[in-house]
Protein 1
Amino acid sequence: MEKITAIKGIKDILPQDSPAWNQIETAARRIFGDFGFREIRVPIMEKTELFKRSIGETTDIVEKEMYTFTDRDDELITLRPEATACVIRAYIEHNMHNYEQVTKLYTLGPMFRRERPQKGRFRQFHQINAEALGDEQPQCDAEIIFMLVNFLRFVGLNDFSLEINSLGCKYCRPTFSRDIVAHLSSVEKNLCTNCQRRIRTNPLRVFDCKVDSCGEVIANAPNILSYLCSHCDEHFKLVRTFLEDLKVSYTVNSKMVRGLDYYTKTAFEVTSSNLGAQNALAGGGRYDGLVSSLGGPNVTGIGFAVGMERLMASLPRKQEHDYQTDIFIAALCEKAQKIAFLLTNELRSSGIKAQTDYTAKSLKSQMKRADKLNSSYTLIIGDNELEDKKVQLRDMKAKNQISLPLDNLTEAIKNIFKEKS
Ligand code: AMP
């Protein structure tokens, strides 16, 4: 029969990789908790309208990357391509702004984008997202970037760069957009066909284009930082000062605009040099108009997303046994198997990682299995042991063994592990 494989660009996370994933997720929960963030778990499916209205109708994500389907009742549903919109939807729906002035939330989970799969780019990938709502002060921007940097360092990443920029606000961005349109139109023939269309639909998206000739056009484009109104300019200056106070190194990149339409003022991106072409590890920014544009109160916000797969790929791989067993019970005959069945499960109920084998294989093959399971001890029960009413407990590291009476065996083993812990 032909085998069924996973969908292109969608990967399994295998048992040997899960411990590293868990460690990263635990670190995020810990560090984000220290900064006052609480976990929210939002659905992986939402109404399509949510993403169209927040990310922007003319972004790559909404135009060509969303997994959208019509449900049986004709409702348009989308597998979430990012989490910010979902978190904001929940924030509004549950009136969270009524409970506290500043709401800090984080969420972890899979996102879905129908991109062309390549190294570091998948169709299902995982993000850790943090969102701070209700604090418009520049300290908040610096603090959330500081939290991201702390988290990356905590999980062992040292080699990364942080770029920041300001995208202005609804008052100063239109003048910039007007001049960008004029600039792009004057050199339209040098742009790829996609970007020629973007001049009319969403000119800022030309900044994200990877085509060389478009990159050259952008290199000579007006600089967004010279268009900031006094409020945005002051905000950006303060963010930089606070980052310096917190000893966070950064570079300003006025060409970094990020691929989503909702960003205002501060935008930031973390890249890692050991990732290859898809080197963006994390990104985020301020989105002061997003909550109200989704029908909520006039509340400001800022957030970021870290890509788990890229973070895992940029961390040095630890050579650890991915499986640890406390005791393997080698049962060499049928009667021993009966004892092993009860004993194994009683030990597990007491928090001891116990394993056995019910196929009565030879001692040699059972010792091999114990090694494979990375077992600290092996308990040997065969005909001779049953006759003597004594079993052998082998310490697999020290390579020595002791005898234990068959009576009260469970208690004796529990005591050994109690002494060790
Ligand atoms: P974005 O939501 O586009 O700002 O992306 C935030 C982070 O998610 C990026 O910096 C990547 O680490 C990760 N990411 C985005 N798209 C993908 C993808 N298709 N495959 C793997 N990781 C991704």
Protein 2
Amino acid sequence: MCGIVGYIGKRDVAPLLLEGLQRLEYRGYDSAGVVITGKSGVLKTVKAKGRVRELEARIPKRFTGTTGIAHTRWATHGAPNDENAHPHLDADGKVALVHNGIIDNADDLRAKLIADGVEFTSETDSEVVVHLIGRSQADTLEAKVQEALRRIEGTYGIAVMHQDFPDRIVVARNGSPVVLGIGDKEMFVASDVAALVSHTRQVVTLDDGEMATLKADDFRTYTTEGSTTSATPTTVEWEAESYDMGGHDTYMHKEISEQPDAVDRVLRGRIDDRFSTVHLGGLNLDPREARSVRRIKILGCGTSYHAGQIGAQMIEELARIPSDAEPASEFRYRNPVVDPDTLYIAVSQSGETYDVLAAVQELKRKGARVLGVVNVVGSAIARETDGGVYVHAGPEVCVVSTKCFTNTVVAFGLLALHLGRIRDLSVADGKRIIAGLRKLPAQIAEMLEGEAEIEKLAAEYAGAKSMMFIGRVRGYPVAREASLKLKEISYIHAEAYPASELKHGPLALIEPALPTVAIVPDDELLEKNRAALEEIKARSGRILAVAHQVQEKADHTIVVPKNEVELDPILMGIPLQLFAYHTAKAMGRDIDKPRNLAKSVTVE
Ligand code: F6R
């Protein structure tokens, strides 16, 4: 979603800001803009609908300065056009603001400001904030921003410049990420470390309710009420190169191919052969507490929700704790009964998804214990939860998730083993699961070698208008995730059903023009799955099976290596990532930036 970049220092600011915006492109946006303090001390702004390269084309030759802020906008209030693009300026053109998030009381404030004679130049909710700052009579920029923030309700990550205070940028956070990057006599700010890591890996992540003043050689943090806060910089572990395409034609392809290494990373240093278990250092759940958990509820959105569904099954199987997953976006709105014996687990790759964060905050408010399974270290959800497991997938740039999904599921495998071994999972079973986990990186690499075959299959199925994905029990969330992946990047309509539900309705859809992708592991449900294939074949449906052995009734089978039954879901989804990728490629889709989607959904 929207992205913020800012810089104050000695270097020419415009190229730095444009580079930062390019690094945020993956989050999804529809317009971009930049403001700098020009040589004369006057603010200079350029905005453009469309891509960052269109903004770049509009930047005049003498657009030089050493302080500036920039933005990529994802339209929420008002169409994507030049006027609605950020930065926004106050009536005198002295204050500039970029804003991520949503101002809930914007309509009210706008009406009041209009009544006071303010003329608006955009339809955005953000513009009200810059007018409030511009009209404040306070003496300092910090106090002007604080006064404005007191009047607004909603979420924000903002960066503000003021012509009368040219030595500083003031930033504030409430529900939308703001990260400071500390350089040598220069300071950066961004909504995502991706925009910072090529310049500095020393960062400070603001908390909700926190603000900062950035000067070239100094920064300070404080609350919106004005009390000083302590900010200790941390080092970002991700390298700048992780954000490059590395010879692949898309980030999605790069990220799919990185999975053997990514899975190796989530396992590294965690396996304890002596006790046939794993160490999860950040869990903050001692054995006594783990034993007293009566139920586990996993919350996430989209792909992370699917990973949570697989995780719930793993926990239930290995630790025998009743577990289920629910979309966080639904959970937070249904006034859920929060039970003290239930352990809640929030799953999020970005750690910033608003629906998940809001669910966590609601749970915490009601006194629940909430753990996180998160990829981005230090992200809002990671900090809001009581402990958790980092999934160590590395940065994921493609809007659709692949390696983060796989690593999240492996992280759940570790958690399930850990909880299982504290409860009733035997040493022998612990050993068996550990052996299975260790096999994963090589098995994933083996599957990736079969890419050419999958590419051929994708070309055959790319003409379908609609596809059905089916799986049973462990295979069902795999089918759901595979169907989501296909629809997100190819725009082919896809449905996912439990194979057991076919005859209760969806069988009516089966005909030669509706291919079915069936997840058919060699587990205790193999014969039942085969019966579903028979039913489809009897209606002349085409079948692509993902299975441990060639399926006679299927037109094609992608054979995947066998692991332990509990871990099979980790492997069975991987060829279907490649299937979605090659289908979308055959259809000429913009794979890394699917229409209407953003990488990190930080608004409702
Ligand atoms: C789809 C995808 C999304 C995200 C969802 C939640 O490929 O990536 O469905 O999983 O928007 O995002 P996170 O995991 O960052 O909370």
Protein 3
Amino acid sequence: MSVEAKAKYLGTVLQVAVPSPLRRVFDYLPTRAPQTLAEPQVGIRVRVSFGRQQLIGIVVAVANSSTLEKKQLKPILASLDSEPLLSDAVFKLLLWAANYYQHPVGEVFAAALPAKLRNGIPLRGSSKFWTASEPSTSEENSLSRAVKQKALLSFIRHEGEVSESKLRQAKFSKQLLAQLLQKNLVEEHSRAEVAAAPFEPLKTESNFDIELNEEQRIAVTTISKSLGEYKCFLLNGITGSGKTEVYMRIMQEQLSKGLQCLVLVPEIGLTPQTIARFKQRFSCSVVSLHSGLNETERMTAWSQARDGSAGIVIGTRSAIFTPLAKPGLIVIDEEHDSSFKQQDGFRYSARDLAVSRARQEGICIVLGSATPSLESLHNARSGKFVHLHLTQRTGIDQSSAMEVIDVSSEAMLEGFSEQLLYRMRKHIAQRNQVLVFINRRGFAPVLNCQTCGWICECENCNAQFTVHANPPSIRCHHCGAAARLPQSCPSCQSKELTTMGIGTQRIETFLKKQFTDTPVLRIDRDSTRRKHSLEKMLEEINRGEPCILLGTQMLAKGHHFPNITLVAILDADSGLFSADFRGQEHMGQTIVQVAGRAGRANRPGEVLIQSRHASHETLQSLSNKTYAEFSEIQLKERMSAQLPPFSHLCLLRAEASEMQQALQFLDGIAQFCQRFSAHNSLPIEQLGPLPAPMEKRAGKYRVQLLLKTDKRGKLQALLSSLCAELENMKLPRSVRFSIDVDPQDLV
Ligand code: ADP
Ligand code: ZN
Ligand code: ZN
């Protein structure tokens, strides 16, 4: 804000974060309304009138003045809590996140709370219990023939008091109780629920039947030494190297001190098997937080974490906001996974917030992955994170051989080369299982020549053109160059120009025709929508009979397929030439993760990657080298292009039903940014405004403006000033605008 606003009212004012799209807090006067539980304080929920609505917000500060006049200030209608809802660390994390991600603070708080709390339900309910009335002779008479009622009465008398669950356990019906109540033989009472007791610290000497290998031992000892202060560890271990075992040893150590552990896993990684593994190992209560819970279950799990009765809290992205009474450790499994970044609304990165939170709480955090993100590797190199390595596969030492099949001059059958089909037949004939993977990443199709392998690339940039359908054209997302869609290959004049795009269903049909005697199991979001369908397919696979597994990303994680001996990556090229600068990193991670499914048992595995660009450096570095060497090359490329982690990005998006509106709006924003950066001598690079690679979505045209700087601070200064400006402006109703700080994908 340009001018410091003057105080017009002096006196206690509550600054309330109200769930509204406005990026600010609102002032209210404290009053003791009749329903009020206690004096308003920071961190409690209050009910306020907001425009014509009544909303529930959180008090984020108690100030002693307001820039509004007293008559403009409304008193709160009620305060809903007697104590702050969130822990201090989570409260501060949310304020920080609202500021960092430039998201309305009220919506940030709302996103962090279970729906029940958001809707004003008390944190703790009250529970009913019943006691018997004073005995009298009339009682005997009234019950002389009611044997069941008599039994219940003597049960209650014997117990002193009974709760609903006790009645249920003893198999007395509610109806029976109602009859006794009506006769005044039983009295009803209610009592406010209290916080559940903290979990019982685990016994230290509990036995593990697994003996750690040398690398695991080093990892465990190194982390153990730092427990009790903030430190971030990058546990870099190949699939099956025993990362989870390392997490569990450290967790054990903290749980035995009565400290809680928060474990975040990717969306598709949180399976009943994962939860079962932790439950099996630890005797304390394990609660899970994920999208499959109903609101009552979520509230219960959340409260147990907050009260400290749950020892382990395991969840997906949003579980990072769960308050913990006694935090001891945070673990992020598969830290590179893109599901840790929220892609709409409040666009936070749970991994990055987890690191902030750990620092805030003064505890250790472990980021685990077989294929760490370039960001985390960079942080490990610069000394921000401690790098720990697990290079040995536990159990039988079998790693898969990777091979790239050059298909540039092959006639392909629905995406399969003759060679690949031949190898698949061989593995099936040996009664093994085969996994066929299709990389769905890289939304924008690539234009290339089927005859000579030519790829349509931008002259100004070291990047490929993206094909746009409407109107038919090619465009560079890096410099804005555009041209008409070529009708023939400039290199060999062939008219065989194609874009890629074969889906799983089409391949399923094809494979069923090719392998008539072998079951083909398709595993993707569509085929697993129905409950238990995934479990059923996994069961069939685990029976070990020859079969072909065909699937997407879902296959890349967590599952162990001991009988798979061949993994085929159908199309590496869409990742290789993705419009997104993270395309190659993601492709590499996916291939390494998928490859990790093969050869886990005592059968050696083979990994085949089909590509028209077999000699491409990225593919070669993947197949001939380790992931570490692959990521090293990727980091060098990022450095020379000054892309993250060597710079910081923010993507501003605008959507409108007409392209022109969105463009015009972002043009205005771009001009503001230019003026700001000139005026404050903050060099901020701008790319765009440009139509988004996915130009139209859900009937809206999308335009984006990418901001890039070397220092986060500069970007933050610009964004704060931009948001202040936007608050004062009347946004055109037809345009939807969003800010994505540290965007994961630019599509
Ligand atoms: P990751 O999480 O790295 O994929 P896990 O921790 O799941 O690996 O370990 C893979 C398998 O190896 C599990 O069945 C685990 O019980 C077992 N395991 C882990 N560490 C050891 C060890 N030191 N010795 C023998 N087996 C181990
Ligand atoms: Zn050609
Ligand atoms: Zn270009």
